[in-house]
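ok so heres the complex, two chains, lmk if somethin looks off
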Amino acid sequence: MNHGTFPFKLTSQREMAESFGALHRRGTVLILPNAWDVPSARVFEDEGFPAVATSSAAMMVSLGYPDGEVIPRDEYFKSVRRLATVLTVPLSVDAAAGFGRTPGEVSLTVRKLVKAGAIGLNIEDFQPGTNRLLSVDLQVQKIKAAKAAGEGLKVPMFVNARTDALRFGKGDEDARFGQAVQRAVAYRDAGADCVYPMGLVEASRIKEFVGRLSFPVNVMVRKGLPTVSELNRLGVARVSFGPYASYAAMGLLRRISREVQGKGTYEHLVHDAITFEELNRLASPRERPVARPSSR
Amino acid sequence: MNHGTFPFKLTSQREMAESFGALHRRGTVLILPNAWDVPSARVFEDEGFPAVATSSAAMMVSLGYPDGEVIPRDEYFKSVRRLATVLTVPLSVDAAAGFGRTPGEVSLTVRKLVKAGAIGLNIEDFQPGTNRLLSVDLQVQKIKAAKAAGEGLKVPMFVNARTDALRFGKGDEDARFGQAVQRAVAYRDAGADCVYPMGLVEASRIKEFVGRLSFPVNVMVRKGLPTVSELNRLGVARVSFGPYASYAAMGLLRRISREVQGKGTYEHLVHDAITFEELNRLASPRERPVARPSSR
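and the predicted structre for the whole thing:
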């Protein structure tokens, strides 16, 4: 069968959402890179990741807004659409606290995300700009609203329910761990597809969390996180970069600056850099090889 | 004198344009980094560069458009404004061939750039999407129109006249070099503030070019370019990164991808990375220390 040349979508948005969900149930951890603009998203696709996510912090700052829900909604959705348009793999987006305080507002956000081309979202359980956790009840309602909004549009949006209880909960570390588990269970039971405890790093803690949930768990890269093969043994479903790729890129710009100002050389600028032609190609969807008929 | 806290502009746009021009006449080469989005621009400012430029290729691709003049004009100017808003140092922009085929269209572009907050521009002498040089006469008219447009708004826009004759001229290398010199002389005499022969890399060629112009010359970083101190000796006025910082950043994303997929580790993601707080601060203009009254 000849699929023709690009641009074309191999699968519908519904199929993309389903295949993204299946990536969390293979028994091996999904490595999910977080992009912030068109070329970062396309480099990750070219490198063979089966899906791409966004980092809201990286994306918003790249457009001149701090992390949170400060960015005008239209600009946020436009930015999501830009990435979805240029990718041929599924795109899951970081949607802060759902860009809304009520389940109805979250529902509207999810419908707009579907229309922008996303097939999944992260939704967090604290109000941007504060360190205060939302009530479990409200967050459960927001998660149910997000799931229902996708279903209403016949796209099974993958809802990754983030909890910041490990950071912003009450009491000592053990108490906050207990709150994170309790919240994750509530979000799972509300219909979320994956839970994402922010700040879960240590192997023993990860193992305990996964064991208590028996459900897909997402961890974020940071210093000290177990390697991918260890995460596999711990039963983690997804490891994502969070904003780290943008932190690393900005770190590189600092090294570039210091080298050229200090030594007057350009090694960091030219080392392992891509070319003009490669950069320019990143503005267009990936050209897929034309499928050849099988020889049977 | 207390300058107050941000946001404030230390100098007017006119003063910024004048100080940017003066940076080309100090007798030492101006190192000008090219950014493409808010955080890349702000990192360069934080690192102490006295001015920031854009790379049109990097900026356009980051928004999903190939290099050239494909990007809708409004989106281009909006992107320039985003960077100018967040910087407190002068911003010079890469304006392709002036976003127009006629001097009148170039004049309109420059007026919009001034309103977006830029104080200088690069204008190239071939039509985007082709490898054909424009006639010298037409380019001279475009440069005159660009200068006049700035003056009409009382902002002495710094016009950096790029020539691609070394790449797209006729004949052998020597013939093309001659054409590049001839074009640069014509652009200088038309009122440009600096000339920018694309593809000038070798020390002996740079020396000859600078000698024949007796005028500010801009060279671009690439492999084999003499070091900054050598460029100083050669009399170069400006060395700019072109799109190299974005090439390098995309190269880093590739190394990140290959490491996490191959070895299952995250060293390139976390090495020398900036922090969340540092990234978030890049969305706002730099906080300048409040000037203290002198002790006299």
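quick notes: Chain A has a mean pLDDT of 93. thats all i got rn
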